[in-house]
Please model this.
Amino acid sequence: METLREPQDDVGDAEAFFEHLIAPVSLSDFFHMYWDRRPCVFRGPDGVADAILSLGTFDKVVSSSNLKYPFFRLFKSGEALPTCDMTTECQLAVDREINIADLNVVYSAVAAGYTLELQQVERTVSSVRSACDAVQRYLCLPVHAYAYFTAGAEPGFAPHFDTHHVFVRQISGRKRWRVWEPSRRFPLAQDYAPDGDTVKAAISESAPILETTLQAGEGLFVPRGFVHEVLPDEEHSLHISLSVTPLCWIDLLRAQFRRAILDSQDDPAYRKRLMRPLREREYDAPSAEFSSLAEKLLGVYSVSEAKATLNRLQRDTLPSARRPRLAEIDTRRKRSASG
Ligand SMILES: [Fe+2]
Model:
């Protein structure tokens, strides 16, 4: 296996990093042709994968970060290894125990063909956090990172679709991808049925629309809903997936109505019993009260209200990119004492 240089902590400017991530595709082509529309392969300039993660860093996280379930999982042909088989009790003190990964089991499982998945790697690797922050700042959408290592000949997961968009980067080794048309167009989180009957039907009735082998450094974009299968090649593979949670019109509508309910629930007009069922002719000449409340409800749809709700929604769903640093604690304390 090759040794890659250690990634840096900061990937720099958010837009420049995103442009680099999708190169050689331009920003305008990406948003017109691929974003939430079609999968796309990126065989741009080197450097992006190196900036995000290296095999050495991944190895270090596995061997020395006290991995806990479910931040790590092991899969083979769609079956997960049970938690109790891959964790061990660690005695922290006489009265304190914690379950962490049993590394002997993890390494044996990987040698036996299991795919090792690390979830939300941005929590433990600063360069991955920096990449997630950059994509998040550019797209104004929440981003999480998942890394997958395999040295086996069998796939980790059955063909499936995700309800988020995925920017894949091959970090080391190589891997084959097959992508089919969506089994469900624009799926929402509640549609998550990753390997259900619709997926089986989608892959049995049609040929893949994209088949490719990603080499180290290359990337792929898989929009939500597109069924995909990842097949190991003859050598090991480490790839990272930056998963982007979409913000949809239905989210805005939901937030808008939630807001309207909160704003109206103390208004006596809305707390009164609903009028008796209207007779058909009364719909044509509704009472003044009915008209006024119905008009107020229509206000929920106003453009300025929707813009304000969207701002709040984005602010509330994006985690803060700024992480506290213990090395700065003395300076901050002095600043708050003097200020
Ligand atoms: Fe997936």
Summary: The first strand starts at residue 40 and ends at 42. The radius of gyration is 25 Å. Residues 249-264 form the longest helix (16 residues).
